[in-house]
Design goal:
The complex is a heterodimer.
Chain A (H helix, E strand, L loop, with lengths): L1 H5 L7 H28 L13 H28 L2 H33 L7 H22 L4 H27 L15 H42 L1
Helix pairs in contact in A: 2-7, 3-4, 3-6, 3-7, 4-5, 4-7, 5-6
Chain B lengths: L1 H30 L8 H7 L15 H47 L1
The chains are: A mainly alpha, B mainly alpha.
């Protein structure tokens, strides 16, 4: 049957599988090292006590949440310019993972805020702009779920992603531009050497985990798109 | 398309449930007055003073650290579970497609 020979076949190549396995193993090892450093090695901060160790989870999650929206925006721009499906698949996959990281920024921040500030949440500039980022992620995914089918819905979502990219530098500069309870910089310049090393290892561990999750989700998304195309062709 | 329809309805359910949980959480927090209800230590922290801590002793805030750890890893495991379930659904779709193609081939011949 000639038609069946032209349809895309969802498949996972051996190189991608090996890369995925290596990333998963690397992520697990780095996470184990991070846990050792956070719980056994790094000194306890004098003012904040044990709760300061939340810093080693909260900051990497924050960085990746912001990097993620930039990836969504770049992939969306590429999709708008080239119209190629693979860029849209990348944008969607990143947005889905990004919302997990953005949610975790808010939740871990709230859990840290309670012992330090005495409240779970306050309408501080940094917190509020981060919540706006979370809503942008939700908006993107909602447009994909409820919006017009086909290219129009993808274009609408791409525009939302671009708005999200504008929010990322605002979050970063929020403590400079507005009076804020949040520490001025994500990483203080006078941070203890051990604390800095622990933070760097944690950032690396979460970054490797992020890349692994993105690779898996992107592969799955590509398969979903291919299958959708096959269904449309044979309907 | 059945596949597209299924995918969309699945996303809708997921996003609606997530939205409902968030709205309920904010309503609950507002009701018990913990959202933005406490300004003193925040202002002190903004002015560079040592922030307040709940309890005392080196391990006073250990439950909060434990909560962060649990929430973070529970979220990642839940997501990996969701991805693996989608993978299974896709495999079922491929199996159905193969069957449909075989039936089509047999009708053509």
């Amino acid at each position: 049957m000639a038609q069946s020979a032209t349809v895309p076949i969802p498949a996972t190549g051996p190189v991608r599988r090996t890369a995925g396995d290596l990333l998963l193993i690397g992520s697990a090892l780095l996470m184990a090292l991070t846990l050792y450093l956070v719980y056994m090695w790094v000194p306890t901060e004098q003012n904040l006590g044990v709760s300061q160790r939340i810093f080693y989870f909260h900051v990497p999650l924050g960085w990746i949440g912001m990097i993620s929206i930039m990836v969504v925006a770049v992939a969306s721009i590429m999709h708008l310019v080239t119209g190629r499906q693979k860029w849209d698949d990348l944008a969607y996959s990143t947005a889905e993972i990004g919302i997990i990281f953005a949610s975790l920024i808010l939740v871990t921040g709230a859990i840290w805020g309670k012992p330090v500030w005495g409240v779970w949440w306050t309408w501080d500039a940094k917190l509020t702009t981060t919540l706006v980022l979370w809503f942008i992620y939700v908006g993107y995914l909602m447009v994909r779920a409820y919006g017009p089918a086909g290219t129009q819905g993808k274009r609408f979502a791409s525009v939302i992603a671009l708005i999200g990219a504008i929010d990322a530098p605002i979050i970063y500069k929020a403590t400079d531009w507005w009076r804020s309870a949040h520490p001025e910089r994500n990483v203080p310049s006078d941070l203890n050497e051990k604390m800095l090393l622990t933070l760097m290892v944690s950032v690396l561990a979460f970054t490797v985990l992020y890349v692994y999750l993105l690779m898996e989700r992107y592969s799955l998304r590509r398969s979903e798109s291919d299958l959708d195309e096959i269904h449309q062709r044979f309907a | 398309m059945r596949f597209t329809r299924d995918l969309h309805s699945y996303s809708r359910t997921r996003i609606t449930a997530l939205g409902a949980i968030i709205v309920l959480a904010f309503l609950a927090l507002s009701a018990i007055g913990v959202v933005g209800a406490y300004e003193g230590p925040i202002q002190a922290a903004a002015q560079g003073a040592a922030p307040a801590q709940e309890g005392s002793g080196p391990e006073a805030n250990l439950p909060f650290l434990f909560a962060v750890y649990i929430v973070t890893w529970a979220s990642f495991f839940a997501y990996v579970f969701y991805v693996s379930r989608r993978q299974r659904e896709l495999q079922n779709e491929i199996r159905d497609l193969k069957r449909a193609l075989e039936e089509r081939d047999s009708q053509d011949s």
